[in-house]
């Protein structure tokens, strides 16, 4: 079954199943099917805050963790169904971390692998939880719905499923469509570069460590306007620049300029979807969103509270 043919409801309270043609589970049956979040994730959350927050901003380990969740989960397409995706292969499959597209991720992956061992949890879950924790640790970042209960895998992700910074926009757009993402999802996900510093794309001395917007410690929409009109000192990735002007993705990209409220909601929905790549079913998983820190983005926190959803 193609995932793209399925309506994926990645908002705050939806369960997803690959069995049968329907994947919608309402709030009440979801409650019956879901495990309680193990308390250890509250401890892990505190530990991650001490590692990711510095002087009220998110730090380099937080940025790396946001990239790491993408590189573990995002190396997936709908053809794989309930396999691969967020499976920890970036940390435990031989050779995957050494691929050129994963340059710069070895340290954060070693840290998360150690933490998974220390707390006796799965490394796939640790990568997802840490990535979503890092997002909400950045001031203004949304709290992304986060399930726990994945199966770790030592099978490397197939090659070619992560984007090439120099690829043409049609190929990049297709790559994300094949993961089940819309133009809007892709434009929203690119906004993660709001917190990004680059070390391996432009290796000229002046640009090593350069950011992709002027406020890399903060989760904001400056990335969108500054990709279109870069101030001095910002390195714009060719992929970002081309997608910002490419058909439907470009239209959506422009729609996020100066619109933090809209972007945060769309980003959180797309990210929640990505965090379930390869998890065929959330029935045996636990919703650990409440173990993440609260967002400093007041608008998003209010939106996340659904009056019909039992809190437990
Ligand atoms: C067309 C899609 C994308 C391309 C081509 C791309 C490419 C890149 C490149 C070349 C870097 C710099 C790595 C380095 O030189 O150190 C980078 C960094 C980063 N990317 Fe992406 N990326 C894409 C999408 C995403 C998505 C979807 C996310 C997360 C949702 C993401 C999160 C990040 C983060 C947080 C960093 C900064 C890491 C750090 O500062 O250590 N990227 N990306």
TrEMBL record:
It comes from Massarina eburnea CBS 473.64. Its EC number is 1.11.1.-. Ca(2+) 2 binds at residues 194, 213, 215, 220. GO terms for biological process: cellular response to oxidative stress; hydrogen peroxide catabolic process; response to reactive oxygen species. Pfam families: peroxidase. Keywords: Calcium, Disulfide bond, Glycoprotein, Heme, Iron, Metal-binding, Oxidoreductase, Peroxidase, Signal. The keyword Magnesium does not apply. The record marks 67 as: Transition state stabilizer. Its cofactor is Ca(2+); heme b. Heme b binds at residue 193. Ca(2+) 1 binds at residues 72, 85, 87, 89. This is Peroxidase.
